[in-house]
């Protein structure tokens, strides 16, 4: 899923609001215009939302993002990851990870069991009142589907996903996040999948793990194999063009490259809650932030690099994306 609904953007800030900390700087640093929170039908790119989640974790020094009675200090996920990196199979990884978190925290007690050929990863929130919109319960399920999937290099195909809360308004989003039979109002949160996955060998190297942790939680939010989804295919086609400047093929050229008609491409992008223009905006925004903040290029140089003819066009677009001008953004994030 290349974009995420506004519900999760707003819900993740619960801990920030509870502590009366300013939301705006965290949103702007993530590249999200704060005014978009007033538009519930809007969606944000996973790259932006990953930066937002990380910003909340760092602001609170809590990887549980304020949704539990006791904080989980930033760095514990990395420590757990290094611990499980010595495991041979996915079953060993699950067992060691469950033991690790149960040892350091009693806020999200977890188990991993096998029953009738099915693996069941299960947990409850010890104090659900701290997670009123069930954000942490959903995010924890995401982590323990995506991270193990990444480690074996293939998506774990879920059979069922159980939620210990009632059907939310964003049920359709959960169906995309957890492609399986969804069941609500259960006694615990569960991922249920074929037990043969537990025998899968871990294939990732230490170097790959270091890269994964450096990008976290961005890669946590991506299902392995999702590089085949349409938006990722389009982004890859654009990035592969040998140029120091972003150039975009027409929708007709792009459709031809993908082996479909432009009408089919339009329809499939609409079905995925995106559009060619949104994909271009996402690429431009991410590249602009990288070149402004990390490469320290001038606004004029960045404008040219992302395919704008005039720097004022970049300034106007950048303020729409983040709520700040490029210079304001650089000053805040320097």
Major sheet attributes: 5 strands, mixed
What is the H/E order?
Answer: EHHHEHHHEEHEHEEHHHHHHHH
Give the averaged pLDDT, no decimals: 90
Strand order of the largest sheet: 3-4-7-5-6
Structural commentary:
The protein is α+β, with helices and mostly antiparallel strands. The protein has two domains: 3-199, no CATH class; 229-332, Arc Repressor Mutant, subunit A (Orthogonal Bundle), CATH 1.10.10. Helices cover 49% and strands 10% of the residues. Helix 8 (171-177) links the parallel strand 5 and strand 6. Helix 13 runs antiparallel to helix 14 and helix 14 packs across helix 15 (311-322).
What key phrases describe this protein's structure?
7 strands, 2 domains, two-stranded antiparallel ribbon, alpha+beta, 334 residues, 5-stranded mixed β-sheet, Arc Repressor Mutant, subunit A
Write a brief caption for the model:
The protein has 334 residues and is an alpha+beta fold.
Q: Helices and strands in order, then pairings?
A:
Blueprint: E1 3-5, H1 6-11, H2 14-18, H3 24-29, E2 43-45, H4 46-60, H5 76-84, H6 90-104, E3 110-115, E4 118-123, H7 135-152, E5 158-162, H8 171-177, E6 181-183, E7 189-194, H9 206-215, H10 230-239, H11 251-258, H12 262-271, H13 276-294, H14 299-305, H15 311-322, H16 326-332
Parallel strand pairs: 5-6
Antiparallel strand pairs: 1-2, 3-4, 4-7, 5-7
Helix pairs in contact: 5-6, 13-14, 14-15
């Amino acid at each position: 899923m290349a974009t995420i609904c506004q519900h999760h953007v707003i819900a993740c800030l619960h801990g920030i609001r509870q502590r009366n900390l300013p939301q705006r700087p965290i949103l702007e640093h993530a590249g999200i215009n704060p005014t978009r929170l007033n538009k519930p039908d809007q969606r944000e790119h996973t790259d932006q939302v990953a930066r937002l989640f990380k910003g909340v974790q760092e602001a609170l020094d809590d990887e549980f993002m304020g949704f539990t009675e006791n904080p989980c200090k930033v760095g514990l996920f990395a420590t757990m990851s290094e611990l499980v990196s010595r495991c041979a199979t996915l079953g060993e990884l699950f067992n060691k990870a469950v033991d690790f978190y149960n040892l350091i925290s009693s806020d999200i007690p977890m188990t991993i069991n096998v029953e009738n050929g099915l693996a069941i990863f299960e947990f409850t929130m010890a104090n659900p009142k701290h997670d009123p919109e069930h954000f942490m319960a959903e995010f924890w399920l995401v982590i323990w589907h995506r991270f193990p999937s990444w480690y074996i290099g293939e998506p774990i195909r879920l059979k069922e996903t159980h939620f210990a809360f009632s059907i939310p308004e964003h049920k359709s989003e959960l169906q995309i996040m957890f492609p399986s039979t969804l069941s609500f109002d259960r006694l615990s949160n569960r991922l249920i999948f074929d037990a043969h996955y537990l025998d899968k060998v871990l294939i990732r190297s230490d170097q790959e793990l270091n890269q994964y942790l450096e990008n976290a939680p961005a890669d946590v939010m991506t299902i392995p194999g999702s590089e085949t989804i349409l938006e990722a295919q389009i982004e890859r086609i654009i990035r592969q063009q040998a140029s120091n400047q972003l150039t975009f093929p027409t929708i007709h050229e792009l459709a031809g490259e993908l082996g479909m008609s432009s009408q089919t491409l339009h329809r499939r992008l609409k079905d995925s809650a995106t559009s060619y223009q949104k994909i271009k905006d996402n690429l431009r925004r991410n590249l602009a932030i990288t070149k402004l903040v990390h490469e320290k290029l001038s606004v004029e140089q960045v404008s040219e690099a992302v395919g704008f003819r005039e720097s004022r066009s970049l300034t106007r677009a950048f303020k729409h994306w983040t709520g700040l001008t490029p210079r304001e953004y650089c000053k805040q994030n320097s």
